[in-house]
TrEMBL record:
The lineage of its organism: Bacteria, Bacillati, Bacillota, Bacilli, Lactobacillales. Transmembrane segments: none annotated. InterPro entries: ScpA. One of its GO terms (cellular component) is cytoplasm. It holds the Pfam family SMC_ScpA. Keywords: Cell cycle, Cell division, Chromosome partition, Cytoplasm. This is Segregation and condensation protein A. The gene is scpA. Belongs to the ScpA family. Participates in chromosomal partition during cell division. May act via the formation of a condensin-like complex containing Smc and ScpB that pull DNA away from mid-cell into both cell halves. GO terms for biological process: cell division; chromosome segregation; DNA replication. It is found in: Cytoplasm. Component of a cohesin-like complex composed of ScpA, ScpB and the Smc homodimer, in which ScpA and ScpB bind to the head domain of Smc. The presence of the three proteins is required for the association of the complex with DNA. Gene3D superfamilies: 6.10.250.2410. PANTHER family: SEGREGATION AND CONDENSATION PROTEIN A.
């Protein structure tokens, strides 16, 4: 007996969000998507929306067409001469879709971490800063970057990490906390300034990229480090502020 898929009609952010929902609910391997099965489930969901007279946005229909196209490519028999010529250059028709799903999932993970940090921050109540007559607003020195510039660099690293992801990978449960990463960064910068990318040990680990980003933001907020960029195309350099040492940052 075929198990019927039960879906809750929630508000999805787009077709990729819906596909990820289906993949997770049915416990499908995202690296080896059974296109026929996922296409049937996707079209069934759109049909449910139409039965309930809900508007189906155009991008959902475009994704449906894309799934059907991939399915047809996989079903078409290959000519003998094409099979002989098939080498490492062969590209799986599903690969582009898998890349899009993995990239979308990576940004979802970043958003989740940032939301968790925001919720944690809401539980903290700081004493209002005392007014200081001698205090004045000091503009950023030339070359000093802002958090949004760092975020742009992180987004680029996430995209590059996604492109370098191996087809098969070993899952390791050795996540490092933001606090531990902050301590590691301070120790690493004690000798000399380094490029932001050098603070990420495993360039293909999206979780480490996000953790490093959040750790750097915390250190910037605590005024322990400075991030600088000589010009638009130059690497972002990170250095300890004067007077900050490994001992003082503990």
């Amino acid at each position: 007996m075929t198990e019927q898929l039960t879906l809750v009609l929630t508000d999805f952010e787009g077709p990729l969000d819906l596909l990820l929902h289906l993949i997770k609910q049915t416990k499908i391997d995202i690296y080896d998507i059974p296109i026929a099965e996922i296409t049937a489930q996707y079209l069934d969901y759109l049909h449910q929306m139409q039965v309930l007279k809900l508007d189906v946005a155009g991008d959902y229909l475009v994704m449906a067409a894309t799934l059907m196209k991939i399915k047809s490519k996989l079903l078409l028999p290959k000519a003998p001469e094409l099979i002989e010529e098939e080498t490492e250059e062969y590209v799986d028709p599903r690969q582009e879709l898998v890349d899009q799903l993995l990239a979308y999932q990576a940004f979802q993970n970043v958003a989740t971490v940032l939301q968790e940090r925001e919720l944690e921050r809401q539980q903290l109540f700081a004493k209002p800063a005392s007014s200081n007559p001698a205090e004045k607003v000091v503009p950023l020195a030339r070359g000093v970057i802002k958090p949004r510039d760092l975020a742009a660099a992180v987004s680029k690293m996430l995209v590059e990490a996604q492109a370098k992801q191996p087809v098969f990978k070993t899952v390791q449960n050795d996540e490092i906390s933001i606090t531990d990463k902050m301590s590691w960064i301070v120790r690493h910068l004690a000798a000399q300034p380094v490029a932001f990318e050098a603070l990420v040990v495993v360039k293909t680990d999206r979780d480490e990229i996000v953790t490093t980003f959040l750790a750097v933001l915390e250190l910037m907020k605590d005024r322990k480090i400075i991030c600088e960029q000589a010009d638009y195309d130059a690497p972002i350099m990170v250095r300890l502020k004067e007077g900050i040492s490994v001992e003082s940052s503990r």
